[in-house]
Design a protein that fits this description.
single chain; 274 residues; alpha/beta; Rossmann fold; 8 strands
Length: 274
């Protein structure tokens, strides 16, 4: 594989699909592209633990999802198809045809949607701490989060979210890291959070997963309370040839809490394909 001589990221603000999208490209110009897609209420910096593992051998594309970070935050409800179209428009603007998609939580939902609606853009899928369906009985919880954000802003959502995302042991041992994620949640524009909540709460792809033919890795934290191991098993069973890896002791943001194990599984998956 090619080796990068310059690891400084190319930071860009690109108009795509009617919004300004913030993204960063790092790594060798002609290497296979790995596109990293974030969870709800974070920005592209959430992938900081993956960048050193990937950037020597891959061209790494990180971006802020619609409504997050430095990407435009329109009002109204978003859809997963719309978020997938954003990603495709960004790739078009960058003249990138296909990517190895790595999505965590919401990013995994976008990845499934892309693999179904734009399969030619997806060389492989990594679906981390995500699900293929939000059951009807879970939708009131999303409606409650929307109402809370619209009424009181993001602050009341910070600590409950952190408790779902990281174990108590990790929160104590890695306080500065957790504080950085707190700051991302707190800084998320309310319209962006609300818009993406609408997209997530209508997720219903399980019955269609058999149509995905991209090589797929499913990763999940052992103790993820929101998208548990059972949800990962559903996806791994439905997608032909998919591999499932459970990351010990981690909760929802396993790419941060179990970064070494996450990176090992991801690199094994990618290196088998390129």
């Amino acid at each position: 594989m090619p080796r990068a001589s310059n690891q400084r990221p190319n930071v860009m603000q690109i108009n795509a699909n009617g919004i300004d999208m913030h993204c960063e490209l790092t790594g060798p110009d002609h290497a296979p592209v790995v596109m990293l897609s974030t969870s709800l209420a974070t920005d592209l910096r959430m992938w900081q633990s993956q960048l050193p593992a990937l950037r020597d051998d891959f061209r790494v594309l990180r971006y802020d999802t619609r409504g997050h970070g430095r990407t435009t935050a329109p009002g109204g409800g978003y859809t997963l198809s719309q978020l997938g179209n954003d990603a495709c428009a960004l790739l078009d603007a960058l003249a990138i045809e296909r990517v190895h998609w790595v999505g965590i939580s919401m990013g995994g939902m976008i990845g499934q949607t892309l693999a179904l609606e734009h399969p030619g853009r997806i060389a492989s899928l990594t679906l981390a701490d995500t699900a293929s369906r939000v059951p009807a009985e879970a939708r009131p919880a999303w409606e409650d989060r929307i109402a809370l954000a619209e009424r009181d802003g993001m602050e009341p959502l910070v600590e409950p979210t952190i408790e779902r995302w990281f174990s108590p042991e990790f929160r104590r041992a890695q306080a500065p890291t957790v504080d950085r994620i707190r700051a991302m949640i707190r800084a998320t524009p309310v319209p962006g959070y609300v818009g993406c909540c609408h997209a997530i709460m209508h997720l219903d792809l399980t019955a269609r997963l058999g149509a995905i033919d991209a090589p797929t890795l499913v990763l999940v934290g052992e103790h993820d309370p929101g998208t548990p191991v059972a949800a990962a098993e559903v996806m791994a069973h439905a997608i032909a040839g998919a591999t499932l890896s459970v990351l010990p002791r981690a909760l929802h943001l396993a790419n941060i809490e179990a970064a070494a194990q996450f990176n090992e599984a991801l690199l094994r998956h990618l290196r088998a394909l390129v």
